[in-house]
C-alpha cells in the first residue's frame, strides 16, 4: 500500500526526526495502517520487534494487529493491562494457576471491613458507610474506588468530590468519610497484591505507577513506544506508557483529539537584553497560556530566573475550605489544602511539638523537641526514621516542654490515640510491642478526626518515610498548604533577582469556604512561580477523570513536547458525509480520500424506518445510533416484536438501568403492582436532591433517559410480576454480542462502522443544559462528530435537527416539525412540571401497546430477514374528531373508548392499525390512571404465526435452549421462554428436560433457591 502524504510525513519523522510525536488522526484515517507502516519503517532502520512496544486497546485489537504485523511481533504488541500485569509479576513473583485476577477484589475488601452491606450465613451487615448515610449507592462507591486509581488521585476530600461530581456519582454524600474509607481500602488492596497475589484489572495499570516500578533495575524500556487511541488514555495508563520509553526512548501517539480565578501571577512580558530592562506584569492565573514565561525561584542559589516557561495549566472544580495565607507585609494568597507551598519552620527551632505518627493503619501521638539540627536523632524526623514509621504530621508547636507534655496527654485522651512507640528495642522487647499494637488494632478513624480538629489532612503528611533523607526542619521545604501554621515563614518577591534570609516573612493562616474553579501551573526547571506576590511551588492537578478525558490528547502533546503530525484523510466516509462534518465542525481538518464515493445523505421521517416502500426501511446489517438510551430500547422491543432478535449494545448500560430499578424497589412500601407511582416518587426525590448541584440539569437528563428506558421495558412485559423478571429481561436486552441490527448509543459507537447508519432523535445532539461546563459542551460535540463519521455508504438522519441542512436547502421554519420518537417528549425537557414523567409513562405504555398491536395481526405479512413491515398511520384529525364524540361514562374504562375510537375510524380490525397517531390525543383526553389502564387492552402477546413457529420448534425438540430456538425462529429468547412456560403448563413438554444449545452442548439452568 502506498502511504498518503500525511502517512509519509510520519515515516519521515521516524527516520529523520527527533523527540516524540503525536498523530492528530481524524475518524476513518487509517490509524492501524499507519502503525503498521511505522513498524515496517522501524524494521528497515535495523530495529528488532523486541526494541519496540506497540500499545493497543482491547485484547481482540492486539490479536488483529499481530495477524497484520506477523507472528514475530507477538510479544511486542500488547494492551497496557497486559504490560502492567507482566511488570507486576516481575515485582511480586509469578502467579500460580490458582491465583487469578479477582474482579470483585475491592468489593470484597469493603465488605470485610464492614463498610458496605454484606450477607453471611449467620447475619447481614448493613455497612458503616451505608448505615451512616455517607453513601446511598454501593455501586457508585465501588466506581469511585476504580476512578481514584485510574486518575492517580491524591485521595483528598476535594479530589474525591471532584471525581464524583465529574462522573455524576450522586450516591456519594459524606466525602470526608468516603475519602478516608477509600484510602483504607487501597492500602489493604496493595497489601493483598504483595502477600496474596490478589489483583483486579485496574491494579494492573495502577500498581506499577503507584509503586514507581520503573525505578527498579530490572525494568525494561524500549527504543520506540507506539500507542494507538491515545485520546482514551487515563492518567494511570498515560504514566505507564511514559514509563515504557524511559529517559531515552521515543514515543509516537496516534489518536483523535476531537474533542481560584483571580490569583495574580508575575509574567515575563519581555526578557532583559543588553541595555533593555526586563518587562513584567501581573496577570490573572486563568489568563496564562502554556509557553508563557514567569518568574521562577531556585532554592539552591536563592535566585529568581526569568526564562522558565509554563508547561501545563490545570483547571478543576473545588468545593472545600481554602487555606488563606497573609504575610507580615500584608500580601494575601489562597491555596487548596493540597497545594504545594515553600515554607520554613526556622522560628520554631527552640520549640517543642506534638505530632501524630503513622505505621500502616495504626497511629500514635508523641512529643519531642523540634531540634532543627537533627544529627543527634531527637527531632520528629529522627523519630520517624528510628521507629520505621510511614508518615508524620505536626499538630502544634509549643514554647515549653511542660506545655507540650500536657497537650500530648490531653490529645491522647480526647481522641483515644495511644502514646506507645512503634519500635524501641533497647527499652521494650519487640514481642511485647507487637502484642500491644495487635490489641490496639486499626485506629484510622480516630486519627483522621484528630487531624481534622487541628486543620491537618490525613492525605497530606508533613513527613513521609519514602523521602525522609530529604526532609528537615532546618531549611525551607515544600509542604502542602494544610500543614502551614501561624508563625512559619514564606518568601515574598521583593522585586530583586536575589533573595536573602531577611526577606522571609512570618505568616498567619486562616480558612474560608470556596466553591468554583481553581487553577494550577506546572513550570519547567525550578517548578516554582510567584502568585499574589508570594513564591509558591507547582500544583499540577491530575490528568483525567475517566477512560477518555476530553483533554487527554492535548495533555500528551504538552507532557511529551511532541511534534504534531496530522492524519487528515478519511478512508471510511463518502464525500457528502465529510462535507456535512466540515460545515458543522469547520475546525476539524477532515478530508475525503481521492477515490471516496459521493454517498447517500438523506433526511427521513420515523415512519420511513418501517415502510418497505421506502429505501430507508430497516434491514439486517444496519446500525442505529442515538444520543440517549430510551429510544434504542423502544426500537429494540419493537424489532423483537417483528421477529428480529435485536439487542442494545452495552451490558454496562443495562447495569445502570438495573441499578435505578433496584433503587426504586428499595423504596419503603414498594409494590410491583404500583410500579409507575413509585417511579414517579423516585423521580421527584432524585430531582430534589439535584437542585443545588452545578450539574443538576445534566443529572436530570441522565436520570430521565434511564427512567424512560425503564418505563419502556416495564410496559413491554405485562406478564412480569416482580423486579427479578424485569432484571432478567434487561440482561437479555443489553448485550455486547453481535446483533442482526446494531443498536448503539453514540458513546458506544466509537470504533464502529457500517454501510448504512441511522441516527434517531438527532435533535438530542449536541445536548445543552443550564450551567453546562466548557468540557461538557465539547464532549457533546464529539458525540455528534462520532455519529456522523460511522458510515461507509449511506447516512440517514431520522428527524429534523437544527444542525442538518441539505445541500442547497434554505431554512424553512414553517416546514419544520418535531417528531417524537418512542417514548421521548419532543423538546427533551426533563422537568417541565411534576406531571412530566407521568405523561411520559403513559405515552411510553401506549407507544409500546401501539408497537404490539402493529405486529399482532393474523393478516399481517410475517417479517422477513431483509425487511420489516408496518401498516400506514391513520389521520390524527379524523381520530381526534372520532374520540371527542365518545362519552367515557358509557364505557367501563378508557381502554374501551380507545378501542372503539379506533374501530369507528377504520374498517380494519384493531389489531392491524398503527395507533401511534393517537398517542398524544390520549394524553389530552384521559387521566393518568386511564392512560395506564390502556396498556391492558392495547398490548397483545405477539402474532399467532410467531407463536406457532416457536411452538412447533419446541414440540419437535424441547431439549434445545431458549437462545438456540430464538436464533432459528428469529425471535427473542424471552419470548421463547414464555412459549416454553405455557407448553409446560398445558403438559405439551416436560419441565425437567435437559436443554442443549444449537451445537448440542448442555445448557445449565440457574438453580433457584427457596
UniProtKB/TrEMBL annotation:
Sequence ranges of Acidic residues compositional bias: 809-818
Region (Disordered): 805-836, 848-875
Superkingdom, natural source: Bacteria
Alphabetic keyword roster: ATP-binding, DNA-binding, Helicase, Hydrolase, Isomerase, Nucleotide-binding, Plasmid
Span of domain UvrD-like helicase ATP-binding: 4-416
SUPFAM superfamilies: Hedgehog/intein (Hint) domain, P-loop containing nucleoside triphosphate hydrolases
Biological process annotations from GO: recombinational repair
Source lineage: Bacteria, Bacillati, Cyanobacteriota, Cyanophyceae, Pleurocapsales
GO cellular component: cytosol; DNA helicase complex
Name by which UniProt lists this protein: DNA 3'-5' helicase
Keyword DNA-binding: yes
Compositional bias annotation for Polar residues: 819-829
UniProt binding sites for ATP: 25-32
Catalytic activities: ATP + H2O = ADP + phosphate + H(+); Couples ATP hydrolysis with the unwinding of duplex DNA by translocating in the 3'-5' direction
Source organism per UniProt: Stanieria cyanosphaera (strain ATCC 29371 / PCC 7437)
InterPro entries recorded: DExx_box_DNA_helicase_dom_sf, DNA_helicase_UvrD-like_C, DNA_helicase_UvrD/REP, Hint_dom_C, Hint_dom_sf, Intein_C, P-loop_NTPase, UvrD-like_ATP-bd
GO molecular function: 3'-5' DNA helicase activity; ATP binding; ATP hydrolysis activity; DNA binding
EC number: 5.6.2.4
Family listed: Belongs to the helicase family. UvrD subfamily.
Amino acid at each position: 500500500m502506498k502511504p498518503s502524504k500525511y502517512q509519509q510525513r510520519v515515516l519521515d519523522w521516524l527516520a529523520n526526526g527527533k523527540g516524540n510525536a503525536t498523530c492528530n488522526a481524524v475518524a476513518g484515517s487509517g490509524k492501524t495502517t499507519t502503525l503498521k507502516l511505522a513498524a515496517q519503517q522501524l524494521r528497515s532502520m535495523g530495529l528488532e520487534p523486541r526494541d519496540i512496544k506497540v500499545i493497543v486497546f482491547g485484547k481482540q485489537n492486539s490479536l488483529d494487529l499481530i495477524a497484520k504485523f506477523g507472528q514475530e511481533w507477538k510479544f511486542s504488541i500488547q494492551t497496557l493491562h497486559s504490560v502492567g500485569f507482566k511488570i507486576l509479576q516481575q515485582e511480586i513473583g509469578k502467579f500460580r494457576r490458582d491465583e487469578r485476577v479477582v474482579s470483585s477484589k475491592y468489593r470484597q475488601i469493603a465488605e470485610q471491613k464492614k463498610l458496605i452491606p454484606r450477607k453471611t450465613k449467620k447475619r447481614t451487615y448493613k455497612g458503616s458507610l451505608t448505615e451512616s448515610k455517607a453513601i446511598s449507592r454501593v455501586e457508585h462507591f465501588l466506581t469511585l474506588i476504580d476512578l481514584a486509581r485510574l486518575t492517580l488521585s491524591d485521595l483528598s476530600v476535594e479530589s474525591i468530590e471532584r471525581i464524583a461530581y465529574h462522573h455524576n456519582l450522586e450516591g456519594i454524600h459524606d466525602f470526608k468519610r468516603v475519602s478516608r474509607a477509600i484510602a483504607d481500602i487501597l492500602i489493604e488492596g496493595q497489601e493483598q497484591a504483595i502477600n496474596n497475589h490478589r489483583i483486579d484489572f485496574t491494579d494492573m495499570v495502577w500498581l506499577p505507577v503507584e509503586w514507581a516500578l520503573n525505578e527498579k533495575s530490572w525494568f525494561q524500556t524500549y527504543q520506540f513506544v507506539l500507542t494507538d487511541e491515545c485520546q482514551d488514555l487515563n492518567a494511570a495508563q498515560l504514566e505507564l506508557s511514559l514509563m515504557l520509553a524511559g529517559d531515552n526512548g521515543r514515543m509516537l501517539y496516534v489518536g483523535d483529539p476531537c474533542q481560584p480565578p483571580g490569583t495574580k501571577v508575575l509574567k515575563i512580558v519581555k526578557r532583559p537584553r543588553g541595555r533593555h530592562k526586563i518587562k513584567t506584569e501581573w496577570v490573572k492565573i486563568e489568563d496564562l497560556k502554556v509557553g508563557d514565561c514567569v518568574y521562577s525561584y531556585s532554592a539552591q542559589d536563592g535566585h529568581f530566573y526569568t526564562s522558565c516557561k509554563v508547561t501545563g495549566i490545570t483547571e478543576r472544580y473545588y468545593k472545600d475550605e481554602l487555606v488563606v495565607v497573609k504575610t507580615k507585609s500584608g500580601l494575601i494568597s489562597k491555596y487548596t489544602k493540597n497545594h504545594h507551598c515553600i515554607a520554613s519552620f526556622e522560628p520554631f527551632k527552640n520549640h517543642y511539638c506534638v505530632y501524630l505518627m503513622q505505621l500502616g493503619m495504626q497511629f500514635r501521638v508523641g512529643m519531642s523537641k523540634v531540634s532543627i539540627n537533627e544529627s543527634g536523632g531527637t527531632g520528629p524526623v529522627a523519630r520517624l526514621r528510628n521507629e520505621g514509621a510511614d508518615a508524620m504530621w505536626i499538630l502544634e508547636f509549643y514554647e515549653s516542654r511542660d506545655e507540650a507534655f500536657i497537650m500530648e496527654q490531653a490529645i491522647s485522651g480526647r481522641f483515644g490515640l495511644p502514646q506507645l512507640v512503634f519500635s524501641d528495642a533497647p527499652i521494650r522487647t519487640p514481642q511485647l510491642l507487637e502484642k500491644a499494637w495487635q490489641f490496639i488494632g486499626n485506629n484510622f478513624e480516630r486519627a483522621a478526626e484528630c487531624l481534622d480538629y487541628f486543620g491537618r489532612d490525613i492525605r497530606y503528611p508533613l513527613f513521609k518515610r519514602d523521602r525522609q533523607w530529604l526532609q528537615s526542619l532546618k531549611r525551607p521545604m515544600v509542604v502542602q498548604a494544610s500543614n502551614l501554621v501561624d508563625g512559619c515563614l514564606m518568601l515574598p518577591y521583593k522585586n530583586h533577582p536575589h533573595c536573602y534570609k531577611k526577606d522571609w516573612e512570618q505568616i498567619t493562616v486562616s480558612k474560608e469556604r470556596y466553591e468554583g474553579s481553581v487553577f494550577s501551573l506546572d513550570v519547567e526547571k525550578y517548578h516554582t512561580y510567584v502568585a499574589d506576590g508570594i513564591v509558591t511551588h507547582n500544583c499540577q492537578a491530575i490528568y483525567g477523570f475517566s477512560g477518555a478525558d476530553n483533554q487527554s490528547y492535548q495533555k500528551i502533546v504538552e507532557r511529551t513536547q511532541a511534534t504534531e503530525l496530522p492524519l487528515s484523510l478519511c478512508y471510511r466516509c463518502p464525500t457528502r458525509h465529510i462535507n456535512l462534518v466540515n460545515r458543522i465542525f469547520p475546525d476539524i481538518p477532515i478530508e475525503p480520500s481521492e477515490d471516496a464515493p459521493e454517498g447517500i445523505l438523506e433526511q427521513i421521517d420515523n415512519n420511513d424506518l418501517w415502510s418497505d416502500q421506502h429505501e430507508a426501511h430497516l434491514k439486517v446489517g444496519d446500525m442505529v445510533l442515538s444520543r440517549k438510551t430510551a429510544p434504542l430500547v423502544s426500537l429494540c422491543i419493537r424489532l423483537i416484536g417483528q421477529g428480529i432478535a435485536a439487542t442494545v449494545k452495552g451490558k454496562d448500560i443495562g447495569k445502570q438501568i438495573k441499578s435505578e430499578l433496584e433503587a426504586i424497589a428499595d423504596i419503603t412500601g414498594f409494590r410491583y403492582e404500583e410500579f409507575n407511582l413509585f417511579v414517579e416518587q423516585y423521580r421527584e426525590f432524585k430531582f430534589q436532591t439535584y437542585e443545588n448541584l452545578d450539574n443538576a440539569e445534566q443529572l436530570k437528563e441522565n436520570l430521565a433517559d434511564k427512567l424512560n428506558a425503564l418505563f419502556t421495558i416495564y410496559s413491554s412485559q405485562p406478564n412480569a410480576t416482580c423486579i427479578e423478571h424485569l432484571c432478567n429481561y434487561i440482561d437479555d436486552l443489553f448485550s455486547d454480542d453481535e446483533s442482526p441490527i446494531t443498536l448503539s448509543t453514540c458513546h458506544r459507537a466509537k470504533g464502529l462502522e457500517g454501510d448504512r447508519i441511522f441516527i434517531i432523535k438527532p435533535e438530542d445532539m449536541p445536548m445543552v443544559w443550564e450551567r453546562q461546563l466548557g468540557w461538557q459542551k465539547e464532549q457533546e460535540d464529539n458525540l455528534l462528530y462520532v455519529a456522523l463519521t460511522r458510515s461507509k455508504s449511506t447516512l440517514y438522519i431520522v428527524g429534523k435537527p437544527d444542525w442538518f441542512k441539505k445541500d442547497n436547502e434554505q431554512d424553512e421554519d414553517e416546514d419544520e416539525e418535531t417528531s417524537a420518537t418512542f417514548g421521548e417528549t419532543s423538546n427533551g425537557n426533563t422537568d417541565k412540571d411534576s406531571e412530566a414523567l407521568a405523561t411520559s409513562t403513559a405515552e411510553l405504555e401506549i407507544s409500546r401497546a401501539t408497537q404490539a398491536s402493529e405486529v399482532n395481526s393474523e393478516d399481517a405479512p410475517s417479517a422477513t430477514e431483509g425487511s420489516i413491515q408496518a401498516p400506514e398511520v391513520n389521520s390524527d384529525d379524523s381520530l381526534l374528531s372520532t374520540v371527542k364524540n365518545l362519552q367515557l361514562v358509557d364505557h367501563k374504562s378508557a381502554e374501551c373508548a380507545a378501542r372503539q375510537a379506533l374501530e369507528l375510524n377504520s374498517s380494519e380490525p384493531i389489531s392491524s392499525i398503527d395507533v401511534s397517531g393517537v398517542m398524544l390525543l390520549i394524553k389530552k383526553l384521559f387521566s393518568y390512571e386511564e392512560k395506564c389502564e390502556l396498556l391492558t387492552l392495547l398490548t397483545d402477546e405477539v402474532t399467532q404465526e410467531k407463536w406457532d413457529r416457536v411452538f412447533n420448534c419446541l414440540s419437535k425438540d424441547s431439549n434445545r435452549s431458549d437462545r438456540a430456538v430464538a436464533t432459528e425462529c428469529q425471535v427473542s429468547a424471552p419470548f421463547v421462554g414464555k412459549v416454553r412456560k405455557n407448553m409446560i403448563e398445558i403438559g405439551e413438554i416436560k419441565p425437567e428436560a435437559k436443554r442443549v444449545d444449537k451445537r448440542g452442548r448442555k445448557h445449565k439452568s440457574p438453580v433457584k433457591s427457596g
